């Protein structure tokens, strides 16, 4: 999620494109010895082809892609750049043309348009009684590049998961993880606005990881699958320490999806599925549907998820800023270097001017200064930022 720039004040949730690893169930043993005159995938237990888990047709994830795309076109229509700016990009597109690149380098609408359509703004959530923005922001995008990156990632990750687990469970993980990402972002970054689906996308990645762990015994090449998935997750989280990217939304979505995966993506034991589908005469020993550790993970994850949302919402509506309680947590979202500055706050200053003499006071820290300037608005913003830092 990109943090707001000094001009546009827009926070963008970005998610890098990657593929998801293929996991194949292991140890799919027939109930009886296979008939050697038939292919090895056919068994003589009263059926020709044994498929332990149902395959679903993916339709919800494509609908999510359509919904995000439609809302992006609506936001561009509402934005109507030619009406409000003289330097639009792609003016031949009419009211669908983009804001100037200095204002929005991702080719999209203005921050005011996104705010009007439901972008996450903490003050409006807490003091304006608009908690719905915690959900609505995940369906909006700041530009063409932003929506392309997120939607391609959603297609590659989401369709595979929906085919494996169905639309109800994957839809729940996507939406709840998006909410979790917005919640954690609101607790740490309380200036500017936020849009994007990367919290939900990181939730799907977290769900993939917990699904692999809780269903560990049914997978072949376990270590390779785990290392591949961890590598993908680490690379994506590493992108979040760049400037103007909100890694709190990524982390919040990932944690929420990780906990939800233990709840929604648990698989029954292969032996239980085999026994259920076999003719009654082959059933001899009763097998538990889930292993004991799966029940434990299910209960612990559900309790932790409820506790995290309850505590997070209480802190949010009390107006708490978690940076006041964690002096190092800001490094999770941005690590400053000689190449960039992580300060993305909006500052407010009071100024008076007499000729070329400008007197300015930062309202957040009370510092004042006098400057000789034949100023333009961008210069005033830069002086205010320096005075408040």
From TrEMBL:
Cellular compartments annotated: Membrane
Enzyme Commission numbers on file: 3.4.21.105
Family (UniProt): Belongs to the peptidase S54 family.
UniProt-recorded name of the protein: RHOMBOID-like protein
Alphabetical list of SUPFAM superfamilies matching this protein: Rhomboid-like
Main location group: membrane
Keywords: Hydrolase, Membrane, Protease, Serine protease, Transmembrane, Transmembrane helix
